Amino acid sequence: MTKLLLSLHVLASILAVGPITVAASMFPRYAKPPAPGDDGPHDHDLRTAAFLHKICRGYAVVGIAVPVLGLATGAQMGVLRDTWLVASIVLTTIAAALLMSMVLPGQRELLEEGEGDGEGEDLPGTGMGSGALTVAARRSAAARLAMTTGIFNLLWATVVVLMIVRPGSTTGA
Predict the structure, then answer these.
(1) Please, what sign has the CA dihedral across residues 81, 84, 89, 91?
(2) CA 91 remoteness from chain centre
């Protein structure tokens, strides 16, 4: 049973958290408007950003399986009180809180602000309207979101390392 739970936990981690980390990392690039006067090529594309946000939201729901299966696996292995697992649980909780309180709302805010000249027109095909933030404010918000997403990704990377190395574990690494 332990091997089955561990396999499901690892699969859920790869299939749920992986897409969130990739999509969330790509989002700011597509949501950030070009600088004023920048006539060169840019990646600003709100339809792509909206799709990446949809991936993050959808996989966040599926991602609930990761800690549930992790706790079941830890209980089965009898390691729920081991320091490496407690640290992983704390970091996972922080990452989830960051995703729900900053990353997803930050993405939603950038999408709601949309693209345009601030006159409130809708973006065809996105269901998103134009907001009141200036281009500079949207660029700044996208940069903050990129930083927050980077922290989110570092938290998950740390959890992965803790799961593999298991410092102080007597079960072997």
Answers:
(1) positive
(2) 14
